[in-house]
Amino acid sequence: MPGMTVNGRPVRFDLDPKTPLLHALREAANLTGTKYGCGVGDCHACTVIVDGEALRSCLITIAEAEGRYITTIEGLARDRSHPVQQALVAEQAIQCGFCTPGIVMAAAALLKANANPTEEDIRAALPNLCRCGVYPRLVRAIQRAGRVARREETISAAPAPGISAQDAGKAVPAMAAPKD
């Protein structure tokens, strides 16, 4: 049973070692934020971070992932506070959202390696296909995320879906046990 660390937790998959990491994450671990796009590595929708590097999870088997550290979109920032996530929203660089998790993961890996990427660096690090064509906004958003990561700028991010702006940042009261 191949084992690895996924989003900070040790995981063992009782699957054929030739199973693509993408399918193990989506089907066995229920981490469905990693998207199945083309299945042959062309679209980059399935990008995850493996040991700090953006890799297409449809092209790596769970045997090849053995002993490695995997970060999926769910493990990047549960509260959506990562600078890339904030900047994509602020720059309106999200359309349908299908390619977004792969783009976020590729951009997060890029900024970890280079917090001040040029437009050429961004285009080289993000070969992700986006059918909505938000590429100019993506470049601006990733450059802005770099400024946020370097603490040159802040973004007032919207609260997560389902949370009112008034309640954002407040402590959540404990739920009382139901009475019979």
TrEMBL record:
Disordered: region residues: 160-180
PROSITE patterns the UniProt entry points to: 2FE2S_FER_2
Pfam families per record: Fer2, Fer2_2
Swiss-Prot/TrEMBL keywords: 2Fe-2S, Iron, Iron-sulfur, Metal-binding
InterPro entries documented for this protein: 2Fe-2S-bd (IPR002888), 2Fe-2S-bd_dom_sf (IPR036884), 2Fe-2S_ferredoxin-like_sf (IPR036010), 2Fe-2S_ferredoxin-type (IPR001041), Beta-grasp_dom_sf (IPR012675), Diverse_Oxidoreductases (IPR051452)
Origin: domain of life: Bacteria
2Fe-2S ferredoxin-type domain span: 2-76
SUPFAM superfamilies attached to this UniProt entry: 2Fe-2S ferredoxin-like (SSF54292), CO dehydrogenase ISP C-domain like (SSF47741)
Molecular function terms from GO: 2 iron, 2 sulfur cluster binding; metal ion binding; oxidoreductase activity
Record has Ion transport as a keyword: no
Name recorded for this polypeptide: (2Fe-2S)-binding protein
Organism annotation: Tsuneonella suprasediminis
